[in-house]
Amino acid sequence: MLEVAREVCGEAAESWLYSFGRAMSSAHGDDVERLFHSDCHWRDALALTWHLTNVSGAHEVAHALMASIKGTGASEFATDPDRTPAREVMRVGQRTIEAIFRFETRIGRCSGVLRLLPDDKGQWKAWTLFTSLEELKGFEEKTSKRRPTGASYARDFHGPNWLDLRRAAMAYTDRDPEVLIVGGGQAGLATAARLSQLQVDALIVDREARIGDNWRHRYHALTLHNQIQVNHLPYLPFPPAWPTYIPKDKLANWFEAYVEAMELNFWTSTEFLGGAYDEKEKRWSVNLRRSDGGTRTMRPRHIVVASGANGIPNVPDIPGLADFRGKVVHSSGYEDGEAWRGRDAIVIGTGNSGHDIAQDLHSSGAHVTLVQRSPTLVVSIEPSAQLAYAMYNEGPPLEDCDLIASATSWPLARRAHYLLTEQAKRLDRELLEGLERAGFELDYGPEGTGWQFKFLTRGGGYYFNVGCSELIAEGKIRVVQYRDIERFDGGGARMRDGTNLPASLVVHATGYLGQEHMVRRLLGDAVADRVGPVWGFGEESEIRNMYTRTRQAGLWFIAGGLAQCRINSKYLALQIKACEEGMIPLVRA
Hints:
The chain is α/β, with parallel strands linked by helices. Helices cover 30% and strands 25% of the residues. It contains 16 helices and 27 strands. Helix 5 packs parallel to helix 16, helix 10 (410-427) packs across helix 12 and helix 14 packs antiparallel against helix 15. The longest helix is centred in the N-terminal third of the chain and has 21 residues, at 6-26.
């Protein structure tokens, strides 16, 4: 185990970066390769490749770096004195020196994270390297010392004031936005905020009547499942006195305040009806239905689909359910259980929503049966579900934590989450054994990689336990397997063993269809086929078609939790700005 003094960490990182800069300048691949462990990983976020990409193995990393760096003019690699100093940390079960560094290319200022391990001769070599584009030269964000001081903020007694200018900007009577963002949740807000700081005109449209309604209208008891320090939006952190776990309505109200504070252009009660791309004009023609029923046609250069990793409710075809005489609702339409006190309810699906709705119904006095369609991963909300976010409690500021969180390539992240899942299984052993005794079937994610990789591959299939698991283990909420149901009838479910499962309410907690289904519905088969699958892992071990250029010009996707959207909205916005300035083509090669 390493035990390295802080000053030695800094010296080792500075020495490696100096050698790396010299090796890259010499254009000798062997010199570069000698700086890396055989089991090493490089992840780039736009800095050297204009893509989000991963490469593993010393020879492969050296070859990819040499090929990528030729046209960038990357230089001046050095530890960053303005950020968290080099230090010894535990990453992926390995003690390592971790250092944040900076460098420049011809078009941008960049940051990175270096992790060093000693080889068998005691020489420090790179285990992981992350390179990240932070800003474009000449197009820096207008924040802090660069904050605007122009005429629009001056005291002009004869012209429009700030409010007049904001109203005009919001109306879009004399122009179209350069970017149309479909969806006003955390993905849309983060993207719009980033674009506004790059002076890119963006309009958010959302069919809900009020900003934040996409959270406000979720089921009554909903509270975020991860802690507040992970969940800030860009530029404007939550107040320090806020609770550790944010209630949905509190978050919804914050979204409303965020739009006002960040001066984001947002049209509520506006439905995106569809559109088509004009190859000659390099613009979309899209139709929007406004709150008064009228339509507006707009011609943005870019569409950002920010409606979540899953857009359209998934309602499976269940035999006999059409004959059911009670109420059937998808989890997206469920509000609370008070109307079902003393009555029988069936909840189909055992992810977060299914468990939370079952618990809410039980707390309201309903008799609840949870129907499990497939094995489900369960972790206690504390401490197990928070293990993945431990770094955000280590002390570095949020921006440094975000950079460090992004620095682990996805192949290596699989190892990390396998280890975290094994730790969670030990912490939750008693709970998990109680669930199995109650007939609940467990799994632990793809190849044991836990809840986060379940989210990244299929968008769900896990539960952060906030009390429902104990109710199941104690028999207060019944669990049956979907395969044991023969069919539904007017009064509930008929089981294969001949018994009946009565119900007045059936809730589909069955998730959502992927974004490609919405693309096909709104933009047509040709666009959907060109783009391909959205979400899940692709060829470069990155999430497919997320946060990056797609094979359809001017079509972008962003989704995920608040942290994912905060981090990746920066990369998405930088690419859109680069496209607008002619630095990169609209379509990924």
